[in-house]
Design goal:
This protein is an all-beta fold. The chain has 1 helix and 13 strands, in the order ββββαβββββββββ. The protein has a single domain, classed as Jelly Rolls (Sandwich). The mean pLDDT is about 90.
Amino acid sequence: MVRAWNPNNQVVPIDSETSEFQVKLEKLFSEDVENKNGEPVYDYSFRYNFSEKTENRKLEAKDTLTLEARSLSGKTEKLQVALVMKNGAAFGKVISLQPEISEVKIALTELQPVKTVTLPRPYPGFLPYYFQHAYDGAFELKDAESVQFSIGPGIEKPNLQQPHSVGIRTLKLE
């Protein structure tokens, strides 16, 4: 898992067979002391590289991402789920998570081009937050190597600096 360190993020056991990765944020943007004039980026992203798990597997029949997740804030939360290809292009969709655990199904045909976050974050902080790629083609599942989760896209402006929290249990390609 590649993400910015946050003491409130943790893997929590739910029962003897299930764990949940919990992300709890007080706010999405904090001023960078080394880049005080930088444009605010209201985004918290983390990524998991699954390429070793899909290597040598037949993916042609797979057409759906199934996410088991929930909001931990007691209200609906927005979460962008994106698949990142080997060339750095990301294709995703913003979904809504409810406080009750649920399965959210995303057809791969629903994935649209989204911004790829540079993870891990480069130092110094004034370097670009988003990776610039020149790819303008379609999503290719055979080239997908990681999943990027982002809290920020799809959130209404007045709510960007409010606390946000989500819990993710599973992500499957079906």
